[in-house]
Specification:
The protein is an alpha/beta fold. The protein has 2 domains: about 240 residues, Aspartate Aminotransferase, domain 2, CATH 3.40.640.10; about 120 residues, Aspartate Aminotransferase, domain 1 (Alpha-Beta Complex). It is built from 15 helices and 13 strands. An 8-stranded mixed beta sheet has the order 1-9-8-5-4-2-3-12, sandwiched between helices. Strands 7-6-10 form a 3-stranded antiparallel beta sheet, with no helix packed on it. It has a two-stranded antiparallel sheet with strand order 11-13. Helix 2 runs parallel beside helix 9. The longest helix has 18 residues. The chain is globular, with a radius of gyration of 21 Å.
Length: about 375
């Protein structure tokens, strides 16, 4: 690779992925729910410890299934952060419900659990948490509020594969969890996701929704003599070829996480002194959380400092980036949702966050450290 061309992310691919994909191609079963899909389900259920895992063609699909399973209706409300990807909100809006955007914490950049209860109304049906950068939200507090208010809890754990909160894997703590295996994530299938079902009440219906609203899965297991249209649904299954790629990634997940963590820790150590001088802020990982090194970011002093850093890195061929445009301030957010409070922290973080390239086989992380160090010294 050209040392001056470092993409923001790149999947770690070994011979195992190639081996499994070729096996899938030769199996003659290329559509969904083949042998590799079943192996992925079993791997997730055993290793992540969820009652039922169902692969989907995207994390977006898993989020949409969560909304369907909760029977969201027009006018219902779901509390969520504004600092997230649009899929989190779209799953709610597609059911005619209203996303209610709540402030994030200034340390973990996750939804501020102390702001949730004030946003609850008689229309609130659920809380959608987003585990930013693979660092958990404060789930004990959130679950206590949900239990007291009789609300469902959805986990958008798109960035959270292999991360834990007090020993529990993200996505397995609320009623339903969603994982992403998109090419930009730690564990990838190119495209893909999974719905993690942590309440047995949802399992039978989830299988039906995922199979176009039919009981086709029961038919293939020999539980019924024919399958019929039973409920609403869509085609949420991924190809078994993608499941083959994913299985190899799952089996290598600890290795991939360890290699990402080495780079994350290098970044974190390199910029420690600048945080002490209040030039930047580094990620905060609470002691009771285990993160997966999905994102390393710096919070710059202001938009101008962030813009300067991006320009310097871009000139050297290094694809640093930022996100998100807060959903509450976007055209779609204004049309379909509402903000609870002024969300000043969300707005500030969006303007100041700088995300650095991070992937397992990345060359020249030292060069990135040196360039960013030069930028920070001139701040």
């Amino acid at each position: 690779m050209d040392n001056k061309k470092i993409p923001f992310s790149r999947a770690s691919i070994s011979g195992l992925e190639e081996k499994y994909v070729i096996e899938a191609l030769r199996s003659g079963h290329l559509c969904g729910d083949g042998s590799f899909t079943k192996k992925c389900h079993a791997w997730l259920e055993k290793n992540v410890k969820t009652k039922k895992a169902l692969l989907t063609h995207s994390c977006t699909a898993a989020l949409e299934m969560s909304a369907l399973l909760s029977d969201l209706k027009h006018g219902d409300e779901v509390i969520m952060p504004s600092f997230t990807f649009v899929s989190t909100a779209n799953a709610i809006v597609l059911r005619g419900a209203v996303p209610v955007f709540v402030e994030i914490r200034s340390d973990t950049l996750n939804i501020d659990e102390t702001k949730i209860e004030a946003a609850i109304t008689n229309k609130t049906k659920a809380i959608m948490v987003v585990h930013y950068a693979g660092v958990s939200c404060e789930m004990d507090t959130i679950l206590e509020i949900a239990k007291r208010k009789n609300l469902l809890v959805f986990e958008d754990a798109a960035q959270g594969m292999n991360s834990k909160y007090k020993g529990k894997f993200l996505g397995t703590i609320g009623d339903l969890g969603s994982l992403s295996f998109h090419d930009t994530k730690n564990i990838v299938a190119g495209e893909g996701g999974a719905l993690l079902i942590n309440s047995s009440d949802f399992i039978k219906r989830a299988e039906i929704l995922r199979e176009k609203g039919t009981n086709r899965s029961q038919f293939f297991r020999g539980e019924v003599d024919k399958y019929s249209w039973m409920d609403v649904g869509s085609s949420y299954l991924p190809s078994d070829i993608l499941a083959a790629l994913l299985l190899a990634q799952l089996e290598r997940s600890n290795e991939i996480t360890e290699r990402r963590s080495e780079i994350w820790n290098k970044y974190n150590k390199a910029f420690e002194n600048f945080e002490g001088k209040e030039i930047v802020s580094r990620p905060v990982v609470p002691e009771h959380c285990e993160h997966n090194a999905h994102i390393f970011y710096l919070l710059m002093q202001n938009l101008e400092a962030r813009t300067k850093a991006l320009e310097v890195l871009k000139a050297k061929g290094i694809a640093a980036t930022f996100h998100y445009v807060p959903l509450h301030s976007s055209p779609g957010g204004k049309k379909f949702g509402r903000a609870h409070g002024d969300l000043s922290i969300t707005n500030s973080v969006s303007e100041r966050i700088l995300r650095l390239p991070l992937w397992p086989d990345m060359p020249n992380s030292d060069m990135i450290v040196d360039l960013v160090t030069d930028v920070l010294k001139s701040s």
